[in-house]
Automatic annotation (TrEMBL):
GO molecular function: isomerase activity
Protein's recorded name: Peptidylprolyl isomerase
UniProt keyword Isomerase present: yes
Keywords: Isomerase, Rotamase, Signal
Species in which this protein is naturally found: Gaetbulibacter jejuensis
Length: 661
């Protein structure tokens, strides 16, 4: 296409689109006169489009019906006063506070910290350190710094490990992890390997910026002063994908011993049987057994089991299979599918942004943010007020007994941020709240006021931003309102539908009696399944069963320490049970030989439990769910009759045109 034609085509597309474009003031429908704007509907529709599996709900008219029902429920919740409930208000405010944190950031600084964190995640550092703990609010740290510097010089001369061992051998305190060196609460610890986000940011910084074998200069963290030695740096273990067979520690069959079963399965793998088929047949991890034991990829530290992670990462080449090992959950055999390094930066960036904001490095972001806010909002400061407050910092302040003097004018103007004024009294209250942090300290009044004024200004700048965020950021306002209504809807549904169905025992039983044909047991058997890789071994099982041998006797006769020919699974099994073929014929006695999941099976059926209606107790969970749906449909009908809904069809046509284009 030539450039002119392309420009014209784009123009016509834009023209057609703009004619039907809605504006922010367009009202799509009203509920008893309360307007719902088209922009809200379009945003919700587009946001949820990919999540909707029911194709009918992607139709604008069908989705509009759902959205109207949603708004009817919100209207009813407010009529019932659920938005005035104390628990609702508390939960909403907690969410608002959490959401606000995501908008109180400096993007430039955040991006730099995210990239730095990503680079550090590429490898682990192995570190030992010596820490002198002390009151971190103390500004006079020359002595502690020099004492630790002397210890560093010793470490450079005698070796870090020598000094480390000397401290642990000669300066232990009774009943304490801490040492006592020159009166300092001291710790000398091997920290092992760690990566980004595992330590406070100040400590992480020095660890990553110190060469292997070197001892750092003394540095300060929120715990005190440290020196550290970097013993090693290694590439990150990255990400691993594995398959596994798990035999759970908890078994319904008391005769099944997990360690015995896992070793039986391992022998079958060594004999050349398919790992994946054995996982499908025998793994107790039902979330992965159907996929041949395949687990989602994971990184080191991501799972709740260190033993499992170590077993998985120990495998080197795709296809390698571990020996059986035990975790907190049971016994495992693991097969390596893939190993790869860290994901690309763009993939990890969203996750890293959240971690950076929760980490101690967030202080750098806050500093950058307050500097930006100082240039965004009009601030009127009162330098004379600071000089005045310096004269008020007397000895009582450092004893925790400070108060404002008589004649103090608490209403006098101290600071203005935007359209919010702060008085002398506000700053005085701040000073009262922090004075305990200065107990016994030797700090000049000027330093106290300077530090606390900056803290007061920064805190109130951020609070001003928080208070006005809903009016300054459209996206924030939408998300907040969405949660506000969603939380209200949950409380309403719990009250009107979910709890109502559970508590209405008479209605539940009546509903069950009317619809009992919907709640049935499918065909089941009580029996045992014998599984083998070779057809002749299953045939031998059949012969032994016919000869009157028990499962234990057959197991002893066919299986040895060196070879596992057959595995038995017993219990009550239905059509969905992983051990039964899909075309299994339900009848008592010995079945024919079935070939599926890469193995041969014969089923000895002791009893057939035919399709039957479940009792009320057996079906209760499903009955409650269905009864809840029944209650909700009747309730929605009554809401549509109670509240008047009017749709503006002209606006609806514009909405459809905008969505379709």
């Amino acid at each position: 296409m030539n450039l002119k034609l392309f420009v014209l085509s784009a123009f016509f597309c834009f023209t057609a689109f703009s004619v039907a474009q809605t504006n922010k003031q367009d009202v799509l429908f009203t509920v008893d006169g309360d307007p719902v704007k088209a922009s809200e509907f379009i945003r919700v529709y587009n946001k949820n489009l990919e999540l909707v599996k029911d194709e009918s709900q992607k139709d604008v008219d069908e989705y509009l019906k759902l959205f109207i029902n949603y708004k009817l429920k919100i209207k009813e919740a407010k009529r019932l006063g659920l938005d005035e409930n104390a628990n609702y208000k508390r939960e909403f405010l907690n969410y608002k506070k959490q959401l606000t944190k995501n908008y109180l950031t400096d993007n430039k600084v955040t991006d730099a910290l995210v990239k730095e964190a990503y680079d550090r995640l590429a490898y682990d550092v192995k570190v030992s350190h010596i820490l002198f703990r002390f009151d971190t609010s103390n500004t006079d740290t020359t002595a502690v710094y020099n004492d630790l510097l002397e210890l560093r010089k010793r470490a450079q001369k005698e070796g870090f490990e020598t000094v480390f061992n000397d401290l642990n051998a000669n300066y232990k305190q009774q009943n304490s992890r801490a040492l006592n060196y020159k009166g300092y609460e001291t710790y000398a610890e091997h920290l092992g390997y760690f990566s980004a986000f595992k330590m406070v940011y100040d400590f992480e910084n020095v660890a990553y910026n110190t060469n292997v074998g070197e001892v750092s200069m003394p540095f300060r963290s929120s715990f005190g002063y440290h020196i550290l030695k970097v013993e090693d740096k290694r590439p990150s273990r990255g990400e691993v994908t594995v398959k596994h067979i798990m035999v759970s520690n908890k078994q319904m069959d008391s005769t099944l011993k997990p360690e015995v079963r896992i070793n039986e399965l391992y022998k079958k793998i060594e004999q050349g049987e398919s790992f994946e088929m054995l996982a499908k047949q025998f793994s107790d991890d039902k979330s992965s057994s159907g996929k041949g034991g395949l687990l989602s990829p994971f990184k080191s530290g991501q799972l709740s089991s260190t033993a499992f992670e170590d077993g998985a990462f120990a495998l080197k080449n795709a296809g390698d299979i571990s020996e059986p090992f035990q975790s907190e959950y049971g016994w495992h055999i693991v097969k390596l599918v893939d190993k790869k390094p860290l994901d690309a930066f763009d993939v990890m960036k969203p996750e890293l942004e959240q971690r950076v904001k929760r980490d101690s490095r967030s202080a750098l972001i806050n500093t950058a943010l307050t500097e930006k806010l100082k240039s965004s909002y009009k601030i009127t400061e009162n330098e004379k007020a600071l000089t005045y407050f310096e004269t008020l910092i007397v000895d009582d302040f450092f004893k925790g007994a400070w108060n404002v003097p008589s004649g103090f004018d608490a209403k006098k103007n101290f600071l203005v941020i935007g359209n919010t004024e702060f008085s002398y009294g506000d700053f005085a209250n701040h000073l009262k709240s922090v004075q305990r942090g200065y107990l016994g300290k030797n700090v000049s009044p000027k330093d106290v006021i300077s530090k606390e004024y900056n803290a007061f200004l920064d805190a109130n700048l951020i609070k001003y931003r928080e208070d006005n965020l809903e009016f300054e950021d459209e996206n924030f306002a939408f998300i907040l309102n969405e949660y506000r209504d969603g939380l209200l809807l949950f409380d309403l549904m719990e009250k009107q539908v979910w709890n109502a169905a559970v508590k209405d025992t008479v209605g539940l039983e009546a509903y069950y009696n009317k619809n009992s044909s919907n709640y049935v047991w499918e065909n089941r058997i009580d029996g045992v399944v014998a599984t083998a890789a070779k057809k002749k071994d299953v045939s031998k099982v059949i012969d032994l069963f016919k000869a009157g041998k028990t499962v234990d006797e057959i197991n002893t006769q066919l299986n040895t320490d060196k070879e596992q020919k057959v595995i038995f699974t017993r219990g009550i099994m239905d059509t969905q049970h992983q051990s039964l073929p899909k075309d299994f014929e339900y009848k008592e006695g010995l079945s024919k030989i079935y070939n599926y999941n890469g193995a041969y099976h014969v089923i000895k059926v002791d009893k057939v439990l035919p399709k039957s209606t479940k009792t009320f107790e057996e079906a209760k969970g499903m009955v409650i769910s269905d009864y809840q749906n029944y209650i909700e449909q009747n309730w929605l009908q009554s809401l549509n009759e109670t509240y008047k809904v009017e749709v503006d069809n002209a606006v609806l046509e514009k909405v459809k045109s905008q969505i379709l284009n």
